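Sharing a chain and its predicted structure for anyone who wants a worked example. Both blocks are below, sequence first, C-alpha cells second.
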Amino acid sequence: MSFITRGFTGRRRDQDDRLPPGQTLVHDFPVLSAGPTPQVFTEDWEFTIRSAAGVRRWSWDEFQQLEVEDVVVDIHCVTHWSKLGTRWRGVSIDTLLADVEASEEFAMAHSYGGYTTNVPLEDLRDGKAWVVFEFEGEPLDPEHGGPARLLVPHLYFWKSAKWIRGLDLLSDDEPGFWEQNGYHLHGDPWKEERYW
C-alpha cells in the first residue's frame, strides 16, 4: 500500500472558527491515495445506485444532463489538513435519489479501483453531498478523483470517495476500506472522529 503526500504545507490557525480541532490550514491541495490512480474514461464511466427496490444507472452523458450545482465548501482531511472555500461543480445526491425508491438508512460508496466507504444516508441528503466533476472551474484531475468523486464536505475527506462509480443502499451500517482499517465509522471533523 502506498501513500502519496505531495506538497503538504500549512500551518495551524487557531483563530479561524472554520477550522475544526486539530486541523492545519493549507493553501495547496495535498494528494493522499491508498494505491495507484485508476484510469477512468468518461465514455466508460457510469454511476449506479442500488437499493432493495432496484438499480438506477447514469452514463456520463446522462449524468451531464442532470441539474448541476456550484458548491463552495471547506474540506477537512483526517491527516490534519483543511482547505477553506473550495469551489466544486456537480450533481446533488438529492437529485440522484429523487427517483430511487429506498427504505435503507445507509450507503456504501464504491469507487473504480475498489475503494469503499460507508456513509449514513442522512449525511448524503438535504443538500449535504454531491457527485462532483469540476474543481476550481476545471475538470477534476484524476489524482483528485476525476472524472467524478463523491463530495461530503461536513465529514472527513476520506468519506468523499474518489473515482466514484456508485452507491449501494444498505439497511445496516457496514465499514468500508478505511473503516475496516481503524478509521471511525462516521468521521465528523468537529468531534475529531478520526479512529475507532
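Comments welcome. The CA atoms of residues 120 and 131 lie 16 Å apart.
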